[in-house]
Specification:
Blueprint (H helix, E strand, L loop, with lengths): L1 H30 L4 H6 L1 E4 L10 E9 L6 E4 L7 E11 L4 E10 L3 E3 L4 E5 L2 E7 L2 E3 L9 E6 L4 E3 L10 E4 L3 E9 L1 E9 L5 E8 L17 E10 L4 E3 L3 E7 L4 E5 L4 E5 L3 H24 L8 H16 L4 H15 L12 H23 L2 H25 L2 E5 L2 E4 L8 E5 L4 E8 L2 E6 L2 E6 L3 E4 L1
Parallel strand pairs: 1-8, 12-20
Antiparallel strand pairs: 1-2, 2-5, 3-7, 4-5, 6-9, 7-8, 10-11, 10-13, 13-16, 14-18, 15-16, 17-20, 18-19, 21-24, 21-27, 22-23, 24-25, 25-26
Helix pairs in contact: 4-5, 6-7
């Protein structure tokens, strides 16, 4: 009896182990079954690293898991008239173990789109797969430059659009109305000016680097490039036109465009007495500040040739000074501020680093000799590493020191070194340029990310 009971227990244990093994093998299979809930969660999304532009084929992708391409049949959906179906493709996705569906559409107009879902036959069951909403924009490479005014309250006005309310805003007298002038779809700002309105205080509070005849990298995008910020305070209760703002800019196609803001009206209303009393001090301080701001905002600096030579001398002293480098740099900055020149954020590489690297090399050699005589191997290795680092810094400093810079005395930039060639742009007096080539009486200079040829007599070399 005891032996029979033991045999029954052994058989029961075997059955339990076999059942557990079958369940462990079959569980992943059942868990990978495509359910209706999983299908509802699927979305067709634009493939990454592609531009969502009008009149270009845009690919949408989705992976249906746990099914083979032979088990999937895609039925095209009817979209809006401005959406054109191009083609579709299905393939096996080995990474996600399913069927990859790719669909291409072409959009004729810009805007936000919610496409109609597509119908798909999956294992003889009809299902719907929805699209993620997409925002389609025009290709910026095909657009011309335009001005964009962005007010502090978020209101935007475009120079090429005329559909905006009149008056655009209602502001109490004595209250500052702030806005920023931006440039869009442009690679270079050539000229920028504005008019001072009557019966109000109009102040330029900040001018950005883009306005210094500097060039930006040619990247096609919808990004707004800030030009200048203003504050406008109305003194009389009436409807006043926004001061005329003019810009001359070069677009992505290389052509120059003259830009002008359309007529924009701001309705200045009577402010209550309490608010007017508290704002009186701000109004008159802004009036006096305006004179200072106008003199410090310089696009084409009104510098003389002698001032440009003095500025080049200050740069030369800063470039070559060692012990008095901080003083030389401070003198140069003070001179630029006195002339109303916007201080460059990228100074010329100072020679002081070259001197420091030489000192490090000399000290390292001395201590290496001392370590050898005293037979200190660890210290010797440390000083050898320091010597190598000093030599690397010396080499880098020597390369940087050979870079040539100059101060523009007011020059025109040409695409080729010929005076009868068409002028590409102008560089105002006092602007620092980098000299890359020298051919005869011509320099090839670089301003920002763009360069061109100019005559050597218009460039004062920084020694």
């Amino acid at each position: 009896m005891e032996k029979q009971r033991i045999k029954r227990l052994i058989r029961s244990g075997r059955r339990f182990l076999i059942t557990a093994l079958l369940i462990s093998v079959a569980a992943p299979v059942f868990s990978q079954t495509l359910t209706l809930e999983k299908i509802k969660q699927l979305r067709l999304v634009p493939e990454e690293s592609q531009n969502l532009y009008t009149k270009t084929d845009i690919k949408f992708i989705v992976t249906i898991p746990y099914v083979q391409p032979s088990q999937v049949q895609v039925l095209a959906a009817n979209q809006k008239d401005d959406i054109t179906f191009r083609t579709l493709r299905k393939a096996e996705n080995y990474e996600e173990q399913g069927t990859l569906i790719e669909i291409w559409y072409n959009f004729a107009n810009k805007g936000d789109y919610s496409l109609a879902p597509i119908s798909v036959m999956i294992q003889n069951h009809r299902r719907s797969i929805y699209f993620e909403p997409v925002s389609i924009t025009d290709d910026p490479a095909t657009l011309t430059p335009r001005i964009v005014l962005v007010f502090d309250d978020g209101t935007r006005v475009y120079s090429d659009e005329l559909n905006f309310p009149k008056p655009l805003l209602t502001v109490p007298t004595g209250k500052k109305l702030g806005f920023t002038v931006n440039l869009q779809y442009a690679t270079q700002l050539v000229q920028f000016n504005w008019e001072i309105p009557k019966d109000s205080i109009f102040t330029c509070t900040k001018q950005f680097e883009f306005t210094e005849n500097r060039y930006r990298e040619r990247v096609y995008s919808h990004i707004l490039l800030p030009v200048a910020s203003f504050e406008w305070t109305g003194l009389v209760a009436e409807t006043i036109k926004l001061p005329t703002i003019r810009l001359s800019a070069t677009g992505y196609n290389g052509y120059r465009s003259e830009l002008l803001m359309p007529e924009i009206c701001i309705d200045f209303t009577e402010a209550d007495e309490a608010a007017a009393a508290t704002d009186d001090a701000d109004i008159f301080s802004a009036a006096f500040y305006q004179e200072t701001a106008e003199t410090s905002v310089v696009i084409d600096s009104e510098l003389s040739y002698e001032d440009c030579m003095r500025l080049a001398d200050y740069y030369s002293k800063e470039h070559n000074e060692f012990l008095l480098y901080p003083k030389a740099r401070r003198d140069r900055i003070n001179f630029e501020e006195s002339c109303g020149i916007v201080i460059s954020e990228n100074p010329i590489f100072p020679t002081i680093y070259l001197y420091i690297s030489i000192i490090i090399i000399v000290i390292s050699i001395v201590f290496i000799i001392i370590s050898i005589r005293r037979k200190h191997k660890i210290r010797m290795l440390m000083y050898i590493v320091l010597l190598i680092l000093g030599a690397a810094v010396l080499f880098y400093c020597a390369v940087r020191r050979n870079e040539r810079y100059g101060i523009s005395a007011g020059c025109k930039i040409y695409s080729i070194p010929q005076e009868n060639a068409e002028s590409v742009s102008e560089v105002g007096r006092g602007n620092r340029v980098r000299i890359l080539e020298h051919t005869g009486k011509w320099y090839y200079i670089e301003v920002g990310e763009t360069g061109g040829w100019c005559t050597s007599d218009k460039i004062i070399i920084i020694k």
